[in-house]
User: Fold these one by one.
Assistant:
Number 1:
Amino acid sequence: MMTPPQDPQKIEEYAGYLQIKKGSDLWYQFFDSAALESGKIPKDILEEKELVKKLPVFFRILRGKKATREALMELIEKIKRA
């Protein structure tokens, strides 16, 4: 299995072939999936410095570790604003 390209222009080209409307939910899902399949966090998420600081809490939750209520609420608020 091949990993998806990481060049945004190439991903956009593929999205065009698939007739995915630019800016649609599917558009962003397509780009996010390309990043995640390569083991990367989507670039636009990395630009949100405050949100990136909270990712360790999110990762702990995914691993089944307990996070404080305060940390969870702060993460939820950051996600809502993103």
Number 2:
Amino acid sequence: MALFNYKIRTAEGKIQKGTIEAGSEKMAENSLVEKGFLILSIGQRSSNTSLSLPIKFFSGVSGEEVTMFTRQLSVMIGATLPLVKALKILVKQQDKIAFKVILSDIAEEVDGGSKLSDAMAKHRKVFSNFYIYMIKSGETTGKLEQVLNYLADQKEKNQHIRKKIRSALIYPAFIVVGLVVVAIIVLVFVLPTLLEVVSEGGGEMPMATRILLAVSGFLTAWWWILIILLVLIILGFYLANRNEKIARYFDTIKLRLPIFGNVYEKLILTRFSENFSTLLESGVPVTKSLRIVADLVDNKLYRFLIMKTISEVESGNSISTVFSKNKNIPLILNQVLIIGEETGRLDEVLSKLGAYYEKEVDTSVETLISLIEPIVLIVLGIGVGILVAGVILPMYNIAGSL
């Protein structure tokens, strides 16, 4: 975004000067013309540092905004509204500046004769390769409304699953954080005072209290070491994750985690099967489809295997060659790929597998939610039990010795 100084003549013939915010000079001109002004001069303001910095900082476009845009555009096209007009209406309705600028640019490109998919391809940080190829297939087949509707449904479905998992994890995270805060308060402030009382009373400290006091002494004296270690661990994970092999190892571990790994794997397989099937059905070549899906699975191990599969397919080998050799890949996926290739109906078989895993994800998420509460209660009980044993028992010993 930038600021533009302008000089215009109003409908009443008055000369006015002012400043307007827009993504480009052309957009600023269009905005003024739409208001009925005659532009006498316009130019970019030289100093706009104070405004451009926060706009750049808050320039992200959320998935929910893209979903809403997709749904609204589908409805408008279904109502036989011209594409350019529909895009311009959505630009006016958009409140977020970053997305407004992107949509304005797309509307201008389409108005200038470009295809919608080509205009969106210039903003790949907002619209994924899968999204763009689906739009392209909709333009080719004349089914843009149906494609947009499908994309909106898929995005809403993914967002629903993410929100469900996130909401299931909020409760245990809140409990664990609360328990850690209480434990730190007890260890740093309560136990040292308790030690003085027990020492003066001549009482004997139980083992639990002695362990907690040792932890308390360490936290009080060396708290800064823990902070440094925490920062180093976070930094180490971040740097390690930028290495392809290490990131692949971490993602493999994620698949083997108890309970969570099962849900994570099914989410990946759902995404792989459904998106691969949809691309093939839309006429996108196998290797091109695999490249797009590789960026969608959100797992370095699967991405590595998919990229190796592309090389195998280009060499004339079966699509299941790489997957069948990896022990981390479920047998059902290998079987589906083999059957799909042999029957020539790979898209149909993958679609059914995607539907199967989608139901499995729902079931697994429900199971996860039902398991979280008792697990949290057990952890909470153990934590509270340790704290109570360490704090209350010495007091009972003193009272009994009196």
Number 3:
Amino acid sequence: MLKKLTFLILILIFPTLLFAYKHNKREMRAVWVTTLLNLDWPSKSGLSMEEQKEEFIDLLDNFQKNNINTVIVQIRPSGDAIYPSRYATWSKWLSGKQGTAPDGDYDPVEFMIKECHKRCMEFHAWMNPYRVVFNYETSPAPSYHISNKKPEWVVTYGKHQYLNPGIPEVRKYITNIVCEVVDKYNIDAIHFDDYFYPHETNNKNFKDSITYKKYGQDFDNLKDWRRDNVNKFIKTVSDSIHSKKTNVKFGVSPFPVWRNKAHDAEKGVDLRASSSYDDLCADVLLWTTNKWIDYVMPQLYGNIGHKYLDYSVLVEWWNKYCENTNVYIGQAIYKLDINSKYSEWTSSDEILEQLSLNNKYESIKGHAFFRAKYLTKNPLHISESLERSFHKYPSLLPLNKNIPEINPRKLSFVFLKKSSKENKLLWTNNSDKNEYFIVYRYKSLFPKYSAENIYKITKNLNIEISDEEIKEGYKYRVASISKSHHESKSTKAYTIDLN
């Protein structure tokens, strides 16, 4: 027992003993925030405006300690919205009653975006496009809900109700919802999860045969027609987003498997599992190849060596076949549990080893943790492990080849003002293209713009410098970063001694 305890302490304190990790200057570090069922935020429905705000700020402060730079918030759980919308009712997960606005005169999404941007975090608006009622048996929708206003659009499958993707008016309706958010808010991305057509199981069929007869004359089989419906929808949403705001990204978080080798000998992965292509009628590889989405975030929730969802096999596959888009990996921190019946998840080692694997592949440009509450609960000290290793330094977001470049302007002057009262590094923003700033701190003769020398990433125009840092003799340089996350040349800080 003592040897085991000593080993666990060594893992916590010295992760470098076990994992080869590198510090990436550019890397997405994201967290999903689930509003459905009050899983992450708010903690329960019916909280006051101030309580909801306080809870979200607490989440962001916790994320900031872990150098998280992207927050993916579920703004449309199922046919509803956590913001005022022309197309959807207020979500019950805010007020406790579907169609009723939350307490206080505030727009939750507008508030969350401002708080994220204040911390140099991107805000990705997460939507479930097709699911319209989460559980129609226990929580039926009110009469004014879209599922009751347009019952001919709805297909019931299990306990859920879905908008029928085969109806052109449905695809237009959901696209309008996306466009409303893009027009109204200063978001950084629209994010879809893995729910497209439902996975048909136990000989239960998604009842869209009448729609198929009406619209599917050009297709020999039902699945090809369904895939075409989703493809048309994804392309339309992509075109609509980028025609409105070229800087807003479009990302999808699909099943871990696109296709199995048994169904596609050339490109399929050599595993046996449910797939996006065959089971959900979602041809994710087509979307990445044609650049209809700007990033893909596969949910690789199996451990390394898993019989059906081997993480090491899957991460290699996504890296190989998605060269046209940024790949970020969904990581299953929700599985970490000392009492797990699966030994792979009884320490944080599994996640650390997965992140180490990610770093080996050029197309893998970051990761996302599912989900917020598990990161804040810090199972098996995953936060401390990240802070000592992969997340030790702040990180800029990756550049995206599908998004137009915005060139920031180099700062004219940067000063380090020293006095007996305080020391401040300060500068003046000299361009509206400068979205935020990166501060480098170093001791070498020549500056190194590596991850290890990133001191701060900030929206502020000054930061405090401690007396200890002054005594250490650090040098500082500051560069501007644009909304597309491109970096200007840095400006050296000149010292003004007021003592």
